[in-house]
Write a structure and sequence with these properties.
TIM Barrel; alpha/beta
Length: about 300
Amino acid sequence: MNNKIGTNFGPFIKRNSLFDVLKKTAQAGFEAADFSLTRTYGVERENEENFYKDVKKLSDDLGLYLAQGHTPFSRGDYSKEYFLGDEWFNAQCDSIRRASYLGIPWVVIHPFTHHPKETESNRYTEEKRKEGFEINYKFYKRLKPVLNGYGVNCAIENLAENDFITNGHQPCSLYSSKELNDFLDYLADDKTFGVCLDTGHANLVAEEGVPAFIKNLGKRLKVLHLNDNFSEFLDVHLPPFYGDLPWGEIKDALVQIGYDGALCFECINRMPNDEFDMLFAEYIYKTAKLIFDRK
């Protein structure tokens, strides 16, 4: 595969400024980045356009393609009222605007899911499926003119929800390829909307398995969050070969559907210092080259 190999800001963001994150990402070998739009980087609205154009120029100079971006996903209020309200909607719009300054073609926007209560089971039911479907339909339909206005597309990510009673994960709204395909059929706009596959989330709750998930999505798969875990463990976003995902089969499935996006990893850095940050990033890049037959 000749697709660009990328990463999110995970390997470097906790110890570096944005500009240094980009430089070190390129230094580690990566050709693409999943840009964190969850942060404002201390820039006021009136200065945003010039700031992000400077960021894009640096990325271009580094040969680092900003293939995708991730909008805010952490919410203090997990109710459906908040998810459909103006505060959350405006936060997403702000990120879409910043993505347009950066020339990012696809932003990842999490769907609504039923967040667990610590004292209750979080089993996924038919009632939750129907309610989540309608809530997400209202939300993404409202976002569509904003996305189109800025020339940015939206990749909807498959998630896995916590269950504090079982101390594990449960399926949730749009967790499987079937639910995502059904939902995109309902949205009826494959130009604006596609799917971001998080391999770790799928490994935890999608019974079909990750390779089949990829094949079932086909051309609707636009963005990847590649990470490893153990299918009966937790959403820990490990580097390749630290869990039980079948990386060879995943590569074959991506080849079969003709996936043409970036091969972006989303791994959590637990390293102790700068030196190990770079070793962590270089490991991800080198294993990606091995998996995807890059010399």
